[in-house]
Amino acid sequence: MGIAGRGDRDRSGVAGSTSVIVVLGGVALLALVGFVVVDRRGTTGLLPRLTYSVGNPLKWIYLSIAVLAIGSTAEAFLPLFGQQVGGLTPLAAGLLPAALSSGWTVAQIASSTWAHGRSAAAARIAGPAFLAAGMAGYGLLQSSNAPIAVAGWYASLVVAGMGIGMAFPHIATAAMGITTDQAEAARASAGVNSVQMVANTIGSAGAGLLVSIGSDAVGSARLLSFGFACLAVIGVGIAVRSVRPAR
Question: Model-level pTM?
Fold first, then answer.
């Protein structure tokens, strides 16, 4: 009876914590919407005026940056899942985020020569697609801790990291070259860092929420992986919009 009672209290505590997180998440979302409204109407906003211009792709470029930045925040929980689901040692589990980072680095170096044209546009669209495939593969393989499945985790995370690495530099370059006006171009360039920092904050909070509502370690890993994979699929559509020329 004592053990059962303690389990009930633990579950109620998790449910209560999740409710608080959901409420705070809603408040944060409203604050973000409020920021956009104020920034759009202000005479001098944080983001350049082109962000809110109809027909200008800068808004889609920033959203593409946000999708990739949010996707990168999944690495914070990878060592936890490696130990709890895969039974890995702390060292081996710590190599899971390193797999994502290695894919990111290799793809960024390999695609660095695609500065302009169709190759750069293709990389910007393929990036979130790779991220979605990698995160989905990682989530599907969470049902087993067999050596083959664990090897698949590393491979999937390399693919996800490649998606971020191949797309991010070209998206950032597109933001910087969105206009010939030097003042607006400088603000568009500064906006890349602002959007990335906000997206990292949102991604960390969202990842924590998904992990907290999982029924167990496998459930949490799947929620995080599939949730971020779905966001990356949406990111493919956003990327397609971002490569269209301004009207």
Answer: 0.85
